[in-house]
Structure formats: structure tokens, C-alpha cells
DNA sequence: CTCCTTGTTGGTAATTATGCCAACAAACCA
DNA sequence: TGGTTTGTTGGCATAATTACCAACAAGGAG
């Protein structure tokens, strides 16, 4: 009935890949279609190596993939259902507002 | 169109709360209904303080809540849509299998 | 009241995550 | 061929996470 610890570990690796504001924004952007590294890079005030490593985390978890086109690296979202993922997060946030819970605002 | 960094931070805190195998299993268990601390504790070979702290993380993110009944602490899942959350994670795993991607198995 | 059960909090050590700089590799340009 | 653009990798310092033990607080039970 309950999932095994091994199964939970596999799942948590995927969830962990999403558990960073920068990577969330990257996924949000890729929800609108393919984008090049430089387009993604321009979104943030971060070193290019940092951006590259965040993209690698998403790629290794299987959420996005990349291909080289000319001198550009193009990234795309592999799993469209990531939208459902977010809709539940939004539900949690709304639930927190109803509870007037402030723990996320500290 | 794209979410702000502040919004992404709020979201990532909730996702981060789910990003641990132990906490995932706790949520799986609470999907079946309310459970006491000792019932949850018995699932794991962990110190009670560790279990308590994991539950606190879930509680502070607004995913679960607790109430004291007699000498027991009862925990419950506040956000049923967490199931949708998992269904997307499962889709990622299945997509990875199709790709024969091994990065999650190392 | 005293002991015992139940769970939380404080402290600490080990591991992991994050972000920068520097160096490198690959493709494009001149 | 030499220089430039584009992105990745290695190394390192700092911060965050995790899990343990010990101590503590709050309720029963005797």
C-alpha cells in the first residue's frame, strides 16, 4: 500500500530538482516553449556556470532535455504535466492564506 | 507572464518540504487518513526527534496540521491534491524509463 | 507527588547544495 | 589560423539540510 523507501528516494530526487526558485522559474519559462541557454541566462543575475548547473540538475532528473543547434544550446520541457505539479502548490499557498499561516512569510 | 522570483521562492519552500523520501512517505501515509505520531514513528528506523522535525517541516509549509488528543499528537493531510503532485512525478519517472535514462539509478 | 510515556527543542557533526571564479571545449568569424 | 562567442566543468567557500544525542515540557498513571 505505502511506497517503499527506495521508491520514495527516486521520487524525492525529481521533486528536489524542482525545489529551487531559479529552477522553478526555468521550468515556468520552458512551459512556454523551447528556449536557448542565453535566453534563460538573461532571466537571472547569476553566473553562467551557475545557470548551466541548474539546467543540468533539471536535465539529470528527466524534467528537461537539451540539443545543440549551431552554437546555441536549446532546452525544452519534457514533461508537460509539470503544470499539475504547480496547481497543487498553488492550492497549498491558498490554503495557507485561509489559515492565515505566516510561516512562509518570515 | 512568468512568475517573479519572490513567488518562485514561496513555491519552492512548499516543494522543498516534499523533497525528502521520509517526508514523502509520511504524506503517503497521511493520504490514507489521520495518524498519530507513534504510528508515523513506527514506519521508520529514525530517532523520534528526527521524525518530529520532519513533521514540523511539513507542518510549517502548510501541507499537514496536527492536534493533540489525550497524550497523542494526531497529524492530518491538509491538501488532498497532493495526489496530483505525485502523478506528475510518476509521469517523469515513466518518461525516464522510456528514455532509458540511468541518472536516477546511480 | 513521583514516575513514566509522549513528543519537542537545543546542540552538534556530517553531508549536500549553492554560487562564484578560473579554466576549458566547441563552434563561429575574420 | 587566430580570436571571439557560447556553454560546460573543476575547485573552492559558504550556507542549508539531515540525523543523532541529550535535555526538556506536558500529560497520564500509580
**Termini of chain A, distance in Å?**
37 Å
What would you call the structural class of chain A?
alpha+beta
> How are the strands of the largest sheet of chain A arranged?
1-3-2
Proportion of helical residues of chain A: 55-70%
CATH homology-level superfamily of chain A: Winged helix-like DNA-binding domain superfamily/Winged helix DNA-binding domain
Greatest interface (CB-CB under 8 A), with counts per chain: A-B, 49 and 49 residues
Give average pLDDT of chain A, whole number.
Answer: 90
The CATH topology label of chain A is: Arc Repressor Mutant, subunit A
The proportion of residues in beta strands of chain A is 5-15%
Please compute the radius of gyration of chain A using only Cα atoms: 16 Å
> What is the CATH-assigned architecture of chain A?
Orthogonal Bundle
Number of helices of chain A: 5
* Outline of chain A: globular
CATH C-level name of chain A: Mainly Alpha
How would you sum up this structure, described in words?
2 copies of one chain form a homodimer. Chain A is α+β, with helices and mostly antiparallel strands and 106 residues long. Chain A has a single domain (5-79), classed as Winged helix-like DNA-binding domain superfamily/Winged helix DNA-binding domain (Arc Repressor Mutant, subunit A, Orthogonal Bundle), CATH 1.10.10. Helix content of chain A is 57%, strand content 13%. Chain A has 5 helices and 3 strands; from the N terminus they run ααβααββα. Chain A has helices at residues 5-18, 21-30, 37-41, 48-60, 82-99; strands at residues 35-36, 64-69, 72-77. Chain A has a 3-stranded antiparallel sheet with strand order 1-3-2. In chain A, a hairpin with a 2-residue loop joins β2 and β3. The longest helix of chain A has 18 residues, at 82-99. Chain A is globular, with a radius of gyration of 16 Å. The first copy, chain A, binds a DNA duplex (30 and 30 nucleotides) through α3 and α4.
Amino acid at each position: 500500500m505505502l511506497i517503499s523507501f527506495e521508491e520514495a528516494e527516486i521520487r524525492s530526487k525529481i521533486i528536489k530538482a524542482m525545489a529551487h526558485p531559479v529552477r522553478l522559474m526555468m521550468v515556468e519559462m520552458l512551459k512556454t516553449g523551447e528556449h536557448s541557454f542565453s535566453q534563460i541566462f538573461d532571466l537571472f543575475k547569476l553566473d553562467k556556470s551557475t545557470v548551466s548547473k541548474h539546467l543540468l540538475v533539471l536535465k539529470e532528473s528527466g524534467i528537461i532535455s537539451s540539443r545543440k543547434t549551431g552554437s546555441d544550446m536549446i532546452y525544452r520541457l519534457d514533461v508537460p504535466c509539470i503544470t499539475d505539479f504547480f496547481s497543487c502548490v498553488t492550492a497549498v499557498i491558498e490554503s495557507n492564506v485561509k489559515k492565515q499561516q505566516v510561516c512562509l512569510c518570515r
